[in-house]
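Task 17 of the worksheet. Students: predict the tertiary structure of the chain below and write it out as structure tokens. Keep your answer in the requested format; marks are given for formatting as well as content.
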Amino acid sequence: MRVRVEFIKGDRARHISHLDLLRTWERAMRRAGLPVAMSQGFNPHPKMVPASSLPVGQTSRAEIMEVVLSEPVSPAEFVRRINAAMPDGLRITRAKEVPAEAGSPAALVSGAVYEARPWGEARSSPHDEASEASIAASAVTSAVERFLAADEVRISRETEKGRRETDLRPLVHGLRWEDGRLTMALAAGREGTARPSDLLTAMGFDPSDWNIERIGLFKVTGPDPTKWIAAWDL
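Model answer:
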């Protein structure tokens, strides 16, 4: 039985690395007594695969994990048992059975939606807050307009083969500033990947000044990259 699970990685789990997250899942499923199928070979491990990794320091409302069970367990029972065994900061929100012959979880994802808010810890009074918020809104509005109007936005990245330039513009499928939130729909996959930090830097901001949360994973299924299907629904 193959189960697709959507879960939250909250603030208390923000600094858990991808590898530690997998270990946490493994321990929780063992404590919950779930019949997780194991791989074959000298070093067997649970058959579970995330749809996409999440950088350390970011939270998420919509992470996806797929788990293979050796015996049937209802999705509701799976959620109940594993939530009781998960540490603070990790919570499964829903689960469903998917066909055993379905594609790999990574094939579900060609992009991700992020929501970023300025941290704002430096504000010391209601008056300062209103003033800074107004300035920030004006600056972000202008930066969004400039980015969307650009035909090309070149950025430089450090890779294993040295520094490499890439055009960020076609990797940004959506960008909106509204109600103090910057929403970014970014490509993630074989055709290229854009990180929220790349986009914020290209817009003239310091990524460390922003609280970044992933709010959805999606797959572009046609020629228009601005139209997609939520990975959960595939």
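Marker's comment: Helices lie at 18-32, 75-85, 126-149, 196-202. Residues 121-135 have pLDDT under 50 and may be disordered.
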